[in-house]
Amino acid sequence: MYKVSEFSKMTGLSKETLRYYAETKLLEPVFIDPNNKYRYYDNGSFLIARLLVQLRRFNFTIQEMLTVVNDESFENLEQILWKKRQGIVKQVEELNKLIEEMDDFFEFGMEGAEDD
Questions:
Q1: Residues 56, 52: Cα–Cα separation, whole Å
Q2: How far, in Å, are 15, 18, 70, 89, 114 from residue 25 at the CA level?
Q3: pLDDT for the residue numbered 74
Q4: CB of 42 within 8 A of CB of 30?
Q5: Which of 14, 19, 73, 96 is least buried, going by the fewest C-beta atoms within 10 A?
Q6: In sequence order, which ranges of 1-116 are alpha helices (DSSP H)?
Q7: φ and ψ at residue 115, rounded to 5 degrees
Q8: pLDDT tens by residue, 17-74
Q9: d(CA 113, CA 51)
Q10: Predicted structure pTM score
C-alpha cells in the first residue's frame, strides 16, 4: 500500500487531484486509516491512475472518465476514444481551414498594398 505522497510521485497526479478524484468517486483510496485519516492506494489503484492520466491527456471530462472507470469491462472505452478522435480530427480540419483563410487574407492584403 502507498501513502498519498508516494502514490502522487508514482502516478504524476498531484495530491489535490487525488483528493478531487476521491471526492468524485473516480479514484478512491483502498484504505483510510481511521486514526490519522491517511489515505492509502494499492497496485490496482496505480493502474487506474495511469489510465486516468492518459484519459486526461486525451481531454476526457470527469464524467467521461467516470463512464470508463465504472465500466469495468472497458467495453465503451473504444467507442468513447473514437468519438474523441473524430472531434480532434474535426478541430484540426477547422484550424487548417482557418490557416488557409489567414493565408488568403495575407495574400490579398499584400496584393492590395503593392497597388498603392
A1: 6
A2: 15, 10, 10, 31, 63
A3: 74
A4: yes
A5: 73
A6: 4-11, 15-23, 43-57, 62-70, 77-114
A7: -75, -20
A8: 999 999 999 999 999 989 998 999 999 999 999 999 999 998 888 998 998 888 866 7
A9: 54
A10: 0.72
